[in-house]
UniProtKB/TrEMBL annotation:
Source organism per UniProt: Ascaris lumbricoides
Pfam families: PH (PF00169)
Keywords: Cytoplasm, Guanine-nucleotide releasing factor, Metal-binding, Zinc, Zinc-finger
Domain FYVE-type: 49-104
PANTHER family in the cross-refs: DH DOMAIN-CONTAINING PROTEIN, FACIOGENITAL DYSPLASIA PROTEIN
Protein name: FYVE, RhoGEF and PH domain-containing protein 2
Length: 229
């Protein structure tokens, strides 16, 4: 069952802090998930020497008494020399050198991804490939009238700004799949997205016609690699 939680911040700083905190949790969860992924599928591990009688790396044959050290991650057996630095750990924590290196690589890549996260709202109101923009009166889920500067770019997303000189958007809405239609009120139209509806009022008829044309184009477009925040 899909669930949607809508959060409302009192200012841009608080909103950014919430976004960073949520992203940190997601990144940590993904990193942990990958770190426990076996480097070699257990179904694909077969001993070419039959019944794991030899080291999986150097082919040194084990004695009748000593059967080598088993990697807790990939399940292969190694001699003491080939197993690596974690051979003295507890049995369920003994990981061979190959699996250990893979774990470190996944961890480093996960850290880099977290550091290089791009905020899709960090774009100035007048920058980018703008299809249409203007000042509008806007009503959202709280049914409170707000003055905003709306911008639709060639990525077919609607960006909301406090004013046209802002360096960062307050919110972004992917338009593909949205329902756009005229309202019964003069110079007003609505944008419906999932369970939410937004009412927009503009200053004149020409602006309304222009907005309806751009929004209809964007609502029927195909969106690639965008996230609704």
């Amino acid at each position: 069952m899909n669930r949607c939680l809508e959060l409302i911040a009192f200012n841009q700083k608080e909103k950014s802090e919430w976004i960073d905190a949520i992203w940190a949790v997601i990144s940590e969860s993904i990193s942990r998930k990958h770190s426990f992924t076996p480097s070699v599928s257990m179904q694909n591990v077969t001993s070419p020497r039959s019944e794991n009688r030899c080291c999986a790396k150097c082919d040194a044959e084990f004695s009748f008494i000593w059967r080598g050290i088993t990697c807790a991650r990939c399940g292969q057996r190694f001699c003491k020399k080939c197993f690596g630095r974690l051979r003295a750990e507890e049995k369920n924590r003994r990981v061979c050198e190959s699996c250990s290196r893979q774990h470190e690589t996944v961890k480093v890549n996960g850290d880099k991804q977290a550091r290089t996260r791009v905020n899709p709202l960090a774009i100035a109101a007048k920058s980018g490939e703008v299809l249409h923009a203007s000042v509008v009166t806007f009503k959202g889920s709280m049914n409170k009238s707000l003055t905003r500067y709306f911008v639709v770019r060639k990525d077919f997303c609607l960006y909301s700004y406090q004013n046209e000189d802002d360096e960062c958007a307050l919110a972004m809405l992917p338009l593909p799949g949205c329902e756009v239609k005229m309202s019964g009120e003069r110079l007003t139209f609505t944008i419906r997205h999932a369970q939410r509806q937004y009412t927009v009022t503009v200053g004149d008829e020409q602006t309304q016609i222009r907005w309806m044309a751009v929004l209809d184009l964007a609502a029927n477009a195909v969106l690639k690699e965008k996230t609704n925040l």
